[in-house]
């Protein structure tokens, strides 16, 4: 009955854990594997009681008193028969050269693994703990502690003798001890103490929280995170203690150090072991649960949790339930957590099993992502860490991702991913194309096929083109447009398109595509013919790109009908290939197109098409009258008589007026403006342009009996003709609109002219006076005369070499100098007033400004 209940409990527990794993989508932080090889062999006959870890090897103690040294794979390297009973604890120094062992029968051994030094002692009570000095290899650090009912410190003294001293006793059995640097931490039934081996002082006592728990069943777990941080786990409580230096002013009779609890919190389960992981904690927990069916308490699988300590609580990072052998029979004291400081390796020790937990690497992360079918994240992780991954290949992950997408029916995404995953591997590309063909999804992969590096077999591209040709003309045309023509056999595709055109000869998409195929094949004539038939915009690009001007000489009308603007620009840009004469001849039967061409030609160059200017008069008159007058004004090769005849026939008044004025018949032009247009403003404007008094006289005579014309003249002629001439001719009694306003404007214009004249006169007088003063100041200045100056007449130095000799010199304002006796003509008094040189050159007279005598 009991066995059945136990089996039921096991199955319930296992199913519960399986369901939790299925629902969990959070990636575990650690991975686990059993320590096998020699360990498996040992635990088949014996049970593990304790274990300690060094960076280079492991030491495992058993219930039958054996100590095994193991490598990291679990292989046995050495074996020691220490005692017939349970090994309670093993301790190693940091060098891994010395080991301490204690057992249930009171035996204590400390010996060198590679030397002959050894300590043996048997006590009369079980020794639960032992810890050797971390630097035991040094001669000055030959120390270790043991604990049973009391904590003893053994030190090797002079003559290699060992002496012992009691560090603590009287509070029950010593259950746990950890030595780090100069600090020893141990736990007894009452709490945790820390002893400073240097000062020989006990510096703290951390009392136990839950005194209801039996200390032998729920032992304390101690762990040094660093040389000053101690982590205590006892029952469900965790405390993080920091050893700090006491300030000199606070010393008095107190120890030089004290302990501060920096974090304290409760956990859900009983603690069996602790280990640091960066700023987090790894906690091994003993779990008891109650069966829902039998309501009996049973031992569940132990848990290994990673938690983030906070000041008064903690945050769970991850939690894993461990399936260790015989977990149903284990107690809290049967589990131990050991760790390697050099690597993030954690050893979960139980009587029948040793499980190694290690941080998951990038390969493990990718394994988990693939298991959860998160292929895209797995691919990204592999690309980021491609130098660090060992078991995975980016290509394999990518191919699995493509297969996954295809299975889900996401063909477009799968095809797009092929570009990144397959890269330049032509063989894989071809393999994937055939896979897409098998599932009828060639269209999906077509946009992503490589077109340069690499290039696939022509058959691959042709297969896809045939697929589109059978079902999607537009898609087929797109591929032909996007794919280079050398990817496939062009003649094969041309023949296939022709076959389809036999069934649908007017299909514009197929015709356009065929033209593009002809272009790829350099069959430009056929391509041009199709483009012109379709009136396709690419016809001009084709002509330019492949210099097909010789092929379009007889197709100019078609091009003009299609797009006259582009056609004319192209023809004018390439006059050397298609002459103006040829174009005009081709357009002879289409005068409207001929006009478009000649008009654009005239705009570019007024002289190139001069031989056609006479023809253009009729073309402008027929198709583009607004541009006729500008043409007549700009053209210097247009026959005026012919133009006048055409304009008079068509009664084009403005053009006729311009031609009459240009031919010198201004009076007839003015008469036409007044009689035909009846526009006094235009007539006045015309008279102003011609600036001819007789025209103004004709305009006044014509307007004298027309009051509106008189008003217009009064308003506009004030600055060109004396208004009195007009006013005197107005008949008395004639009613003139707005006469008052017109007269006021005339007076205002007259006043304005008077003001302008007076202003100009003032400016002129002021400028004249200013210049006169400036000239006077200039003429009043002295002129330097020295031996370097010469007489402009005799060309000898102006000053005599003998300074005592009398001399007379004339200096003009133009800076010319003369000896007085060198001046032409008889000597006069006063002397000559003008410089003969400047007067001769018409540079204006120079006045004599200085006469020097001595």
Task: Describe it.
With 854 residues, the chain is an alpha+beta fold. Among the domains are: 105 residues, no CATH class; 97 residues, Serine Threonine Protein Phosphatase 5, Tetratricopeptide repeat. Strands 1-30-29-28 form a four-stranded antiparallel sheet, with helices on one face. It has a four-stranded antiparallel sheet with strand order 2-3-4-5, with helices on one face. β15 and β16 form a beta hairpin. α9 runs antiparallel to α10 and α9 runs parallel beside α11. The longest helix is centred in the last third of the chain and has 42 residues.
Features:
Serine Threonine Protein Phosphatase 5, Tetratricopeptide repeat, elongated, 854 residues, alpha+beta, cytoplasmic vesicle, zinc-finger
Helix-strand blueprint:
Elements: H1 2-23, E1 30-34, H2 38-45, E2 48-53, E3 58-62, E4 66-70, E5 76-81, E6 87-92, E7 98-103, E8 107-112, E9 118-122, E10 129-132, E11 143-147, E12 150-156, E13 162-169, E14 176-180, E15 183-187, E16 191-196, E17 201-207, E18 221-226, E19 229-234, E20 237-245, E21 257-266, E22 270-277, E23 280-286, E24 288-290, E25 297-299, E26 303-309, E27 314-321, E28 336-340, E29 345-350, E30 353-359, H3 362-371, H4 375-384, H5 394-408, H6 411-422, H7 426-438, H8 442-445, H9 458-471, H10 473-482, H11 490-503, H12 508-520, H13 524-534, H14 538-546, H15 556-562, H16 564-573, H17 580-586, H18 591-604, H19 613-623, H20 628-634, H21 640-649, H22 653-662, H23 666-677, H24 680-690, H25 693-703, H26 707-716, H27 723-729, H28 739-780, E31 808-812, E32 817-819, H29 836-840, E33 848-853
Antiparallel strand pairs: 1-30, 2-3, 3-4, 4-5, 6-7, 7-8, 8-9, 10-11, 11-12, 12-13, 14-15, 15-16, 16-17, 18-19, 19-20, 20-21, 22-23, 23-26, 24-25, 26-27, 28-29, 29-30, 31-32, 31-33
């Amino acid at each position: 009955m009991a066995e059945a209940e136990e089996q039921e409990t096991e199955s319930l527990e296992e199913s519960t854990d399986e369901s939790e794993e299925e629902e969990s989508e959070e990636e575990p932080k650690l991975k686990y594997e059993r320590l096998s090889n020699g360990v498996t062999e040992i635990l088949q006959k014996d049970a593990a009681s304790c274990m300690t870890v060094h960076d280079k090897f492991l030491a495992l103690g058993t219930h039958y008193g054996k100590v095994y040294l193991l490598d990291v794979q679990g292989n046995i390297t050495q074996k020691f028969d220490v005692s017939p009973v349970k090994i309670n604890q093993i301790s190693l120094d940091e060098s891994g050269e010395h080991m301490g062992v204690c057992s249930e029968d009171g035996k204590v051994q400390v010996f060198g693994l590679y030397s002959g030094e050894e300590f043996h002692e048997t006590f009369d009570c079980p020794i639960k703990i032992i810890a050797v000095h971390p630097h035991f290899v040094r001669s000055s650090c030959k120390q270790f502690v043991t604990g049973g009912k009391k904590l003893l410190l053994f030190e090797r003294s002079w003559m290699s003798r060992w002496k012992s001293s009691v560090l603590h006793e009287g509070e029950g059995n010593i259950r746990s001890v950890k030595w780090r640097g100069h600090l020893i931490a141990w736990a007894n039934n009452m709490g945790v103490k820390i002893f400073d081996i240097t000062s020989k002082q006990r510096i703290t006592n951390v009392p136990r929280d839950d005194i209801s728990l039996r200390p032998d069943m729920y032992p304390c777990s101690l762990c040094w995170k660093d040389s000053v941080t101690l982590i205590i786990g006892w029952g469900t409580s965790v405390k993080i203690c920091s050893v700090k230096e006491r300030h000199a002013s606070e010393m008095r009779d107190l120890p030089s150090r004290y302990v501060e609890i920096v974090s304290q919190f409760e956990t859900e389960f009983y603690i069996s072991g602790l280990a640091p992981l960066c700023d987090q904690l790894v906690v091994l927990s003993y779990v008891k649960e109650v069966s829902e069916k039998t309501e009996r308490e049973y031992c569940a699988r132990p848990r290994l949790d990673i938690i983030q300590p906070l000041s008064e609580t903690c945050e769970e990072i991850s939690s894993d339930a461990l399936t260790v052998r015989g977990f149903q029979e284990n107690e809290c004291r049967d589990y131990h957590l050991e760790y390697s400081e050099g690597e993030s390796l954690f050893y979960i020790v139980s009587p029948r099993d040793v499980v190694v937990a290690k941080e998951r690497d990038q390969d493990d992360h990718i394994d988990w992502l693939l298991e959860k079918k998160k292929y895209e994240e797995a691919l990204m992780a592999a690309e980021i860490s491609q130098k660090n991954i060992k078991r995975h290949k980016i290509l394999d992950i990518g191919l699995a991702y493509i297969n996954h997408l295809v299975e889900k029916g996401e063909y477009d995404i799968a095809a797009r991913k092929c570009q990144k995953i397959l890269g330049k591997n032509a063989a894989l590309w071809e393999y994937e194309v055939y896979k897409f063909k098998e599932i009828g999804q060639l269209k999906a992969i077509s946009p992503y096929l490589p077109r340069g590096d690499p290039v696939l077999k022509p058959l691959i591209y042709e297969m896809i083109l045939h697929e589109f040709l059978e079902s999607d003309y537009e898609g087929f045309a797109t591929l032909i447009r996007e794919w280079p023509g050398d990817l496939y056999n062009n003649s094969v595709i041309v023949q296939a398109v022709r076959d389809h055109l036999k069934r649908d000869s007017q299909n514009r998409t197929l015709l356009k595509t065929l033209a593009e195929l002809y272009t790829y094949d350099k069959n430009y004539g056929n391509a041009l013919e199709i483009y012109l038939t379709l009136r396709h915009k690419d016809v001009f690009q084709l002509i330019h790109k492949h210099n097909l001007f010789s092929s379009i000489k007889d197709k100019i009308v078609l091009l003009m009908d299609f797009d006259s603007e582009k056609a004319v620009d192209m023809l004018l840009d390439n006059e050397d290939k298609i002459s103006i004469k040829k174009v005009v001849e081709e357009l002879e039967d289409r005068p409207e197109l001929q006009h478009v061409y000649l008009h654009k030609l005239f705009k570019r160059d007024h002289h190139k098409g001069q031989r056609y200017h006479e023809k253009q008069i009729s073309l402008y008159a027929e198709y583009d009258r607004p541009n006729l007058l500008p043409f007549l004004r700009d053209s210097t090769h247009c026959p005026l008589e012919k133009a006048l005849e055409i304009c008079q026939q068509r009664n084009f008044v403005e053009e006729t007026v311009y031609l009459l004025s240009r031919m010198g018949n201004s009076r007839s032009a003015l008469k036409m403006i007044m009689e035909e247009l009846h526009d006094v403003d235009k007539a006045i404007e015309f008279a102003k342009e011609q600036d001819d008094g007789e025209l103004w006289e004709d305009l006044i005579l014509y307007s004298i009996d027309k009051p509106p014309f008189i008003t217009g003249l009064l308003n506009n002629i004030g600055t060109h003709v004396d208004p009195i001439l007009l006013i005197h001719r107005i008949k008395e009694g004639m009613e003139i609109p707005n006469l008052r306003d017109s007269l006021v404007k005339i007076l205002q214009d007259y006043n304005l002219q008077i003001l302008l004249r007076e202003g100009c006169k003032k400016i002129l007088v002021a400028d004249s006076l200013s210049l006169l003063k400036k000239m006077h100041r200039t003429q009043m200045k002295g002129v330097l005369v020295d031996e370097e100056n010469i007489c402009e007449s005799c060309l000898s130095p102006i000053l005599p070499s003998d300074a005592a000799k009398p001399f007379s010199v004339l200096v003009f304002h133009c800076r010319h100098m003369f000896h007085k006796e060198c001046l032409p003509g008889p000597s006069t008094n006063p002397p000559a007033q003008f410089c003969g040189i400047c007067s001769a050159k018409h540079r204006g007279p120079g006045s004599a400004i200085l006469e020097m005598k001595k």
